[in-house]
From TrEMBL, chain A:
It holds the Pfam family SusD-like_3. Keywords: Cell outer membrane, Membrane, Signal. The keyword Signal applies. Residues 1-19 form the signal peptide. This is RagB/SusD family nutrient uptake outer membrane protein. GO terms for cellular component: cell outer membrane. It comes from the Bacteria. Residues 331-506 form the RagB/SusD domain. Residues 96-244 form the SusD-like N-terminal domain. Coiled coil: none annotated. It is found in: Cell outer membrane. Belongs to the SusD family.
Automatic annotation (TrEMBL), chain B:
Keywords: Cell outer membrane, Membrane, Receptor, Signal, TonB box, Transmembrane, Transmembrane beta strand, Transport. It is found in: Cell outer membrane. The lineage of its organism: Bacteria, Pseudomonadati, Bacteroidota, Cytophagia, Cytophagales. Belongs to the TonB-dependent receptor family. It comes from Algoriphagus lacus. Residues 115-232 form the TonB-dependent receptor plug domain. It comes from the Bacteria. This is TonB-dependent receptor. Pfam families: CarbopepD_reg_2 (PF13715), Plug (PF07715), TonB_dep_Rec_b-barrel (PF00593). Residues 410-958 form the TonB-dependent receptor-like beta-barrel domain. Its main location: membrane.
Length: 506, 1025
């Protein structure tokens, strides 16, 4: 056996070390496992579908205080904020105190969360919109598929901008020339696009509404796919148009849209049906929450609105103000979509406190019907108006003798008031109260945000079932600067080239 | 290692003197540490360049001129000794170990250097001073030990990681933690738990550590390249040395307690205050008299703590070993938080021949942390909850067996109401039930290891290769009770996760050392390094349990209705080709230069590689012939400059694209990052000038430094209405400067007979200024703007309470405005000092301004150690200041809801003319009364403090006593008693001025419901066998 010499060993070891020094060892050419690069995201039809679903996701699970939580903007928060700005739901805890008592400012989280998450959703929609034509040109998508996607994205963009206009701008019904919100139609997905985006001004409320309608009209023209509740289809587009036009006081326009879909949907015989599964004839469009994807225990409607005795958290109750209103008849079936405990009455529209899996309803046919009823009433067509009002109301009363009649109500104003009261009952705990206050205060029918049951004062069921005096507070006159939310301070501070104007008073 | 390397380095310093008319002197150099002979020691004829070095057995032979009078013996680590040449031709010398600051061997990265040769800024900390202290991790005990190194322990939760900043904050949104290198391997410094704060450095047993070297300036850190933008902490673990096996056993046991509690309202006081809040708002009373409960009793305890460490070390000439076993179990004063660590280390060095060496360092540890929810505004957060729970309500309700005898409402939604008409705000749960039943457990198995081989190819040229790994196998278990608390909404929840991290690191170096023409000392290192790290994880979660029984230990299949899973994967790589060139002329003129090319996977391909260089020079003034001072024995001037990048910029900040998003309608992809292919290396230009000197018995080190960071990779905020993911884009847009002064003064003040006193004082002054940004960076409490330091407190300026009506007042620009707390007339009103009661004029709300900087301006430590015969003592003091703290804890405790309050709320305004700093109470008006959306000068306080960090007293049993008692079985024994964190001197009104909710750079200086820091009393024993 040959003796192994140390000298040779040295050389061998040194050689190995030298090889290490001179040979390259590739460790820096890596790419992320969790990011599909920009240029590949629209490379296949399946990815485009995924990108579209990503827009739905951003609508349902946006950012609040820097994290995806609490169902901003349309997973739950639009309902909670819309209710807490009104008087029909009552705030029992700190969570929604700022919104309920009107103490928001340019730094408070709820109003800022809506702004941030809505624009995030809009940008995602714009990114998809800008990539569809190329996908068709590349043969990845058929024109029909691209058109359907385009319609869905335009609906999303319109829906989000309208939510912004109702919170951050004065109502169309008061002054269409008031400052609107930046209407974003260009995707911001590259560094050079930042100053282009920053340059977009607030514009006017009227411009905002015109752009919303333009988007919805195009969406209506593009979508050919059959109606389904959890994706934006033609029915959803038209239903949203009735809402937009009622805010614009375009009564005839509301009726035109109503005519288009009146036979496609129907109000359910039982008022609870739309809230159990969410695919009834009344459900036009909802964002889905599942056990795996929801607003969480700090945001989901079942958690926030549900009865603690049923495992929910119960931070928000029905207000005794509406519960004890004489015009909400005792035999109304909608009084049974509630539960109670010793401290008060809770809505039972959302009853999944464990899984939080429930659709967040964006628009129901009942709203379209009541929109049409109001449009008729505004146009003096009281018979048609009352007939439509009864479509929604009678099913809940179950007693034809209680039906409204034109004669019984008396005049147009009374019919309109009855329709608006009906909206409060029918859409209780669905976040629709604020948009109504917004437009009705703008036209002068309401004085502003009405007095609410004083925050954290309704501590006992006897506020509901006895004549115990209900303490009230938190009214905001229409002229008060607090009637609309402030633009986030962050928005103004981080726009390096053309910061938009703050709302007066903030 | 140090000795091995050094011995060989010096063996090439074969200096041969050629002289005529001489005599030859021979002898042997020995020392207490190396009684068989000190090899490589220098023997020089004083006043000449004639000299030699000792052989391997410590012997020498030198020819000296007839007129030579003195021989100078010197060697690294020993005091230089001068011996007069008499008639004798044999001179044997025993050298004394040098404990002075300047003559140690310092680990500097890919090698060692003598302290006297160093031209950069390096501070060494010997672990002896800290290894017996009770601490979950070593770095918390580095606080105050070295100038320029700031370490704060921001809470008393075991597992929470201390904040380490070397020479200030050197990044705005990228990582700001220093690089930690253990035995030459840069380690992963990432918290791998999702359920607890789980400090990765707590996996390392402090008892295994021999020494710390903190590299601070550019030249010292440059050899680690861009990873070293935030400084480097080099950790050397203990290794064996030749000799008989030495066994040591160290133990200590003691008690952890909270330094202080909050002073809250009693039940009776609460009833008065709570109802007054409501009455002032025209609301009905809710509170009724009941108990007087302090809920803090539920969350605090005296935590028992113990630690045990056994080591065996020793070796032959060829093979040296160190084995260590450690165990610690520490209970935090906050229930049920504790930390257990089991650790093992084996370090072996072996010389195959004179020229070939190899060795390994391997450690394994298992760290288990039981944590809790301590979220600052989590409903089940222990501190938040215990300070908000209603004090007029009982904790227990023995009849309520469904909730284990705790006072909980029948539906489990909240704590029982007691006599009150309502429960606590936000339905907070009974924290006693929560702490008993919810489990937050994280475990980490960690293996740190390296293997090296080293070959001397020709004289002076050594090749070395080293492969290191760092593997963390971390798993999480979180179990929430379905009955009450965080798990109630989902009917019970169990979450388990596996979160490993793995790194390998391969270093190859060639080192050449030589001496040219006697005086030119060259040391050249070239090398290549590759590093790859991956983090991956997955989790399973069950919710909605069939029975609470199945929730105790693990996920049990089939026991829950709703199941969730998830995971993630991130990797990054780094490589570098580097060189370092050190030159010294007679040890008098010193120069060092390094050049490296780094590549990092986190940057776009075109900009992935960066070339960075650094250099330093030094001048040992005291070696000059003209320098002749009896007082100054050693004076060295040094200066350095280097440029480095920063690798802690996130994994792929430049890549734009679509991330996975799970929406209700299905799994999709969502736009999640804006591409920036122009992203470049950020660059730090570090300058340092220093002076080291020894004046008599006093050693002084002074440094002045600047660090100009340019092209900072910043998550630059964008206007939210652009809808950009995260409202930010990673861009090279910022610039920042840190500058400062450091001083360290150490001395053996007294050394008389049995008594000696050593003192070591350090001081750091720091200035931070942001010099470029696109726009100010604003968060809830802080704002960073060009011209000021990072993360200043920003918010509303308090103008006091209007004594006429109790309204809170703030500045709105130059004017004072008051928030009118009158039902029906709420809102901002102008304030007229001439007529303070006038609330007729509406006014706009308060405006924001800067309220104080959050980074300490000055800080340091002062250690004094004493020995008297067999007794020893150390008192260690730490100080810091020049910063401001936002006391959010207090603001929250003055809340206007139906929750308990800080006792100072009793000073609230109640009648006209009353002067106080607490406004009239008014239910639900926190947001405006205290302007809760930003900082508020009402709650901003100075953070200056002096803390007595440790007092240690020890007694070493006399060797003779041990000999007679144990017959030599025990060679040494020392008993000690210590108290950590005994005293704090501060004007700050909160629990602790170092309490800090945030550890990032942009959010800082906010004390918000943080667990109080820990005071520890312990007794211990060190024994050697």
């Amino acid at each position: 056996m040959k003796k192994f010499s140390i000298t040779n060993l040295k050389l061998v070891l040194a050689g190995v070390a030298m090889m290490g020094v001179v040979s390259s060892c590739e460790v820096t050419d890596l790419s992320p496992a969790n990011l599909i690069p920009d240029d590949q995201a629209f490379a296949t039809a399946a990815r485009i579908e995924s990108a579209v679903l990503g827009v739905y996701e951003s609508a349902q699970r946006g950012f609040y205080l820097g994290a995806v939580q609490r169902g901003y903007p349309f997973g739950a928060a639009n309902v909670e904020q819309g209710d807490m700005r009104g008087e029909d739901m009552y705030n029992d805890q700190l969570f929604y105190e700022v919104t309920y008592v009107g103490s928001y400012n340019p730094q408070t989280a709820n109003n800022n969360g809506m702004w941030i998450s809505l624009y995030r959703m809009i940008n995602r929609a714009n990114i998809v919109l800008e990539n569809l034509d190329a996908a068709v040109a590349n043969g990845v998508l058929t024109q029909a598929a691209a058109d359907n996607y385009k319609g869905e994205m335009l609906f999303m963009r319109a829906l989000a901008h309208h939510e912004l206009l109702t919170h951050f701008s004065r109502p169309y019904s008061d002054n269409p020339s008031a400052p609107g919100v930046p209407y974003r139609t260009v995707a911001i997905n590259d560094v050079p696009k930042v100053p282009i985006g920053e340059a977009v001004p607030r514009g006017t409320v009227a411009e905002g509404y015109q752009k919303i309608l333009a988007d919805l009209n195009e969406a209506e023209a593009k979508i050919t796919a059959a109606n389904t509740t959890f994706r934006a289809r033609k029915g959803a587009v038209i239903a949203l148009k009735t809402r937009i036009k009622i805010h614009m006081e375009d009564w005839a326009g509301v009726l035109t849209e109503y005519e288009k879909i009146k036979s496609a949907y129907a109000v359910t015989p039982d008022p609870i049906t739309p809230f159990r599964g969410g695919t009834s004839t009344d459900n036009i469009f909802s964002f889905v929450n599942t056990a795996e994807s929801n607003a969480g225990t700090n945001g989901a409607l079942s958690a926030m609105y549900g009865n603690p005795s049923n495992g929910a958290r119960g931070l928000v109750k029905i207000s005794p103000l509406i519960w004890r209103a004489s015009w909400w008849l005792q035999q109304d079936k909608r009084r049974t979509i509630t539960t109670q405990n010793a401290t008060g009455i809770f809505t039972n529209k959302y009853n999944n406190p464990t899984t939080l899996a429930e659709p967040n309803i964006i628009v129901r046919f009942a709203e379209v019907v009541l929109n049409a009823a109001e449009a008729n009433a505004r146009l003096g067509k009281l018979t048609e108006a009352v007939a439509l009002l009864n479509v929604v109301r009678d099913r809940a009363l179950g007693d034809p003798t209680l039906s409204f009649t034109v004669a019984g109500l008396g005049n147009a104003d009374a019919v309109i008031d009855a329709i608006i009261r009906e909206r409060r009952i029918e859409f209780l705990a669905e976040g629709r109260r604020w948009p109504d206050i917004h437009r009705l205060a703008g036209e002068g029918r309401m004085a502003g945000v009405p007095a609410k049951a004083t925050s954290r004062s309704i501590t006992n069921i006897n506020f509901y079932n006895t004549d115990r005096a209900i303490p009230t507070d938190h009214a905001i006159p229409y002229a008060d600067f607090r009637f609309i939310w402030p633009i986030p301070l962050e928005e103004i501070q981080t726009n390096a080239t053309a910061p938009i104007a703050q709302n007066p008073g903030y | 290692m140090k000795k091995v390397l050094l011995g060989f380095a010096l063996s090439f310093l074969t200096i041969v003197s050629v002289l005529a008319q001489s005599k030859t002197i021979t002898g042997k150099v020995t020392s207490a540490e190396e009684p068989e002979g000190v090899p490589g020691a220098s023997v020089v004829v004083k006043g000449t360049t004639m000299g030699t070095i000792t052989n391997l057995d410590g012997t020498y032979s030198i020819s000296v001129p007839e007129n030579a009078s003195t021989l100078v013996f010197s060697f690294v680590g020993y005091l230089t000794k001068e011996v007069t040449i008499g008639a004798s031709t044999v001179i044997n010398v025993t050298m004394d170990a040098d404990v002075k600051l300047l003559n140690e061997v310092v680990v500097v990265g890919y090698g060692t250097q003598e302290r006297r040769e160093i031209t950069g800024s390096v501070t060494s900390v010997n672990s002896e001073a800290i290894e017996n202290l009770v601490a979950p991790s070593f770095e918390s005990q580095l606080a105050g030990r070295a100038p320029g190194v700031q370490v704060t322990t921001p809470s008393g939760i075991l597992g929470a990681r201390p904040i380490i900043r070397i020479r200030g904050v050197n990044s705005i949104t990228s990582g700001a933690n220093p690089l930690i290198v253990i035995d030459g391997v840069p380690v992963v410094d990432s918290d791998r738990s999702a359920v607890n704060s789980s400090n990765p450095l707590a996996n390392i047993n402090p008892a295994e550590i021999e020494s710390f070297e903190v590299l601070k300036d550019g030249s010292a850190t440059a050899i680690f390249g861009s990873r070293a933008a935030n400084g480097v902490i080099l950790i050397t673990t203990k290794r064996g040395s030749t000799g008989k096996a030495k066994v040591t056993y160290n133990t200590s046991m003691g008690i952890n307690e909270e330094v202080e509690r909050f002073e809250l309202l009693t039940g009776d006081q609460f009833v008065e205050i709570a109802n007054e809040k409501r009455a002032n708002a025209n609301q009905s009373p809710l509170a009724n008299p009941g108990e007087n409960t302090d809920w803090q009793d539920l969350i605090y305890r005296k935590g028992f703590t113990q630690q045990h460490n056994i080591s065996i070390s020793g070796g032959s000439e060829a093979t040296k070993y160190f084995f260590g076993l450690g165990f610690t179990d520490q209970e935090s004063p906050v229930r049920p938080n504790d930390l257990k660590r089991y650790s093992f280390r084996s370090n072996i060095d072996h010389s195959i021949s004179k020229a070939v060496r190899l060795g390994t360092s391997i450690s394994y540890s298992l760290t288990e942390i039981n944590g809790l929810n301590n979220g600052a505004n989590s409903l089940s957060g222990a501190i938040y909850n215990a300070t908000r729970a209603l004090p007029n309500v009982a904790i227990y309700d023995p009849a309520n067996t469904a909730f284990d005898g705790y006072n909980v409402t029948a539906n489990g939604a909240t704590t029982g109401f007691g006599a009150n008409l309502a429960g606590p705000d936000n339905n907070i749960p009974n924290i006693g039930f929560v702490l008993d039943n919810n489990i937050f457990r994280s475990r980490a198995h960690r293996v740190l290891g390296n293997v090296y081989g080293e070959v001397d190819i020709i004289a002076g040229l050594t090749a070395r290769t080293q492969v290191g790994i760092d593997l963390t196998m971390a798993d999480d278990f979180q179990s929430l009770d379905p009955r009450h608390g965080d798990g109630r909404g989902v009917n019970g929840s169990v979450y388990m996760a596996y979160n490993p991290a793995f790194r390998w690191n391969w270093q190859n170096t060639l080192n050449y050392q030589t001496v040219i023409a006697d005086n030119h000392n060259l040391n050249v290192t070239v090398g290549a390094e590759y590093q790859y790290t991956k983090f991956y994880s997955f989790f399973g979660q069950g919710q909605n349990f069939s029975d609470n029984f199945y929730r105790q230990e693990n996920l049990i299949s089939g026991s829950y209705n709703n199941q969730f899973s998830g995971g993630g994967y991130v990797e990054n790589g780094f490589d570098s080709y580097f060189s370092r060139f050190n030159y010294s002329f007679k040890g008098k003129y010193l120069a060092s230069f390094s050049l490296r090319n780094d590549g990092i996977s986190s940057l776009p391909e075109a900009n992935r590689r960066g070339t960075f260089m650094g250099g330093s020079i030094g001048w040992r003034l005291s070696d000059e012939a003209f320098f002749n001072s009896e007082l100054f024995s050693d004076v060295k001037l040094r200066a350095s400059y280097a440029e480095v990048g920063n690798t802690e910029i996130g994994s792929f900040p430049y890549v734009g694209g679509f991330g996975p998003v799970l929406g209700g309608v299905g799994a999709g992809i969502g736009y999640s990052n804006v591409a920036n292919n122009g992203l470049l290396w950020e660059s730090s230009k570090k300058f340092n000038a220093g002076l080291d000197m020894t004046i008599g018995k006093v050693t002084v080190a002074l440094d002045y430094f600047t660090n100009d960071i340019d092209g900072l990779i910043l998550s630059a905020p964008t206007a939210p209405s652009l809808g950009i993911p995260g409202n930010s884009i990673s861009q090279n847009v910022g610039a920042m400067t840190n500058s400062g002064l450091e001083a360290r003064i150490a001395s053996n003040v007294i050394n008389k007979g049995k008594f000696s006193w050593n003192t070591d004082f350090n001081f750091t002054w720091l200035n931070n200024e942001v010099t470029a940004l696109v726009q100010p960076l604003t968060s809830t409490y802080n704002r960073t703007e060009v011209g000021g330091p990072i993360a200043q407190l920003y918010g509303f300026k308090w103008a006091g309470v209007n004594s006429a009506n109790g309204n809170p007042m703030y500045y709105s620009g130059q004017n004072i405005v008051q928030y009118n707390l009158v039902p029906g007339a709420i809102g901002w009103r102008a304030y007229d000092p001439a007529n303070p009661g006038n609330v007729a004029t509406t006014a706009s709300g308060p405006t924001q301004e800067y309220l104080g900087n959050t980074l300490p301006k000055w800080q340091g430590g002062w250690s004094n150690s004493f020995t008297f015969g067999n007794f020893d003592a150390e008192i260690f003091i730490r100080y810091s200041g020049g910063n401001y703290i936002m006391n959010e804890t207090l603001r929250g405790l003055l809340g206007q809801g139906f929750s308990n309050n800080h006792a100072s709320i009793l000073n609230r305004w109640t009648e006209s003319g009353q002067v106080t700093d607490i406004p009239k109470l008014y239910s639900g008006q926190d947001a405006n009364m205290f302007q809760t959306s930003a900082s508020n000068s009402r709650f901003v306080e100075k953070g200056d403090f002096v803390r007595v960090q440790n007092i240690v007293i020890g007694y070493t049993v006399p060797a003779t006593a041990l000999q007679s008692a144990f017959g030599g079985a025990i060679t040494n024994a020392r008993f000690f008693a210590q108290v950590q964190n005994p005293f704090l001197f501060t004007q700050y009104s909160g629990l602790d001025p170092e309490a800090n909710q945030y550890s990032g750079q942009l959010n800082f200086g906010v004390d918000w419901n943080v667990a109080p820091v820990i005071r520890t009393y312990s007794l211990g024993l060190n024994v050697g066998f």
